[in-house]
Design a protein that fits this description.
There is one protein chain. With 269 residues, the chain is α+β, with helices and mostly antiparallel strands. The chain has 2 domains: 3-179 and 229-268, CNF1/YfiH-like putative cysteine hydrolases; 181-215, no CATH class. 22% of the residues lie in helices and 26% in strands. The chain has 6 helices and 15 strands. The longest helix has 15 residues, at 52-66. The protein is globular, with a radius of gyration of 17 Å. The structure holds zinc ion (ZN). Zinc ion binds at residues 180, 182-183, 241, 243-244.
């Protein structure tokens, strides 16, 4: 279960049960940083038009709150695909000070090494974390609708299994804050596309005005995780809508594309 933590003005969510078993994972909020509007306050994204110095200062605030080190940080240039990559000690430092040095074209990162901090970024897309508590494998993935359409949840599980074989029933999973079905209106083409791709997809939509639907990306990913073998009782859902709570999270839709990024960061401890 997610737990809200406040350290000074910085607010984030963490998974105490995961920490007790060796994985420290945090879902940040926009509270407590130094960025100015429209990136206020704790923007962690270097690629959104904010001042780099502010982003780096914000990242350091989050590191300090978790006793993490910037030299251990590994991030990727996320492209709404489903490529997942193993990262270890040699990858440390990628993307902390500049976006160009982040790993290219990758939306999922996983590690089996202590002291490697994997970092992913969001504004409405669904943050997804997977942890194998005995094999000590930790993975994070960025699931926007395109990632969901390409089933990045299953791609991450498959990549982790290729590293160390295991039964997905043994995995723990968590989803962070994302735009909810209350605020995520899509058109009929979008709806039809998902119906063609997934037989159960109708369950992930509700009717809106004529020819429009509301998409529940969290529900879709919980279903895809279960389809891949993850047990429902092992999935922790934060269940907060980024657009409804745009005082606490960044929302790409609510901010009309001009906003910051919160993070899902994690490391084996
Ligand atoms: Zn909402």
């Amino acid at each position: 279960m997610w737990k809200r933590v406040e350290k000074g003005k910085v607010i984030y969510y963490t998974l105490p049960e995961w920490s007790a078993h060796g994985a420290q994972v945090i879902m940040s909020t926009r509270a407590g940083g130094v960025s100015k509007a429209p990136y206020d306050q704790l923007n962690l994204g270097l690629h959104v038009g904010d001042a780099s110095e502010a982003v780096i200062a914000n990242r350091r605030l989050l590191l300090a709150a978790n006793r993490w080190r910037e030299e251990d940080f590994v991030s990727a240039q996320q492209v709404h695909g489903n490529r997942v990559l193993y990262v270890g000690a040699p990858d440390r430092g990628c993307g902390f000070y500049d976006y160009e040095s982040a790993i290219k074209d990758t939306d999922g990162l996983f590690t089996a090494e202590q002291g490697v901090l994997i970092a992913t970024f969001y504004a409405d897309c669904l943050p997804l974390a997977l942890f194998h508590p005995t094999l000590k494998l930790l993975g994070l993935a960025h699931a926007g609708w395109q990632g969901t359409y390409r089933n990045i949840a299953a791609a991450l599980i498959g990549a982790m299994q290729a590293k160390h074989d295991f039964d997905p029933q043994e995995l723990w999973a968590a989803t962070g804050a994302a735009i909810g079905p209350c605020c995520y209106q899509v058109d009929a083409d979008f709806y039809q596309r998902f119906l063609k791709r997934y037989s159960e997809a109708a369950l992930w939509f509700s009717a809106a005005e004529e020819g429009k639907y509301y998409f529940d990306n969290e529900k879709a990913n919980v279903a895809l995780l279960q389809q891949a073998g993850v047990k429902k009782e092992n999935i922790s859902v934060l269940g907060l809508c980024t657009a409804c709570h745009d005082d606490l999270f960044f929302s790409y839709r609510k901010g009309a594309g001009k906003t910051g990024r919160h993070g899902l960061w994690g490391a084996l401890i």
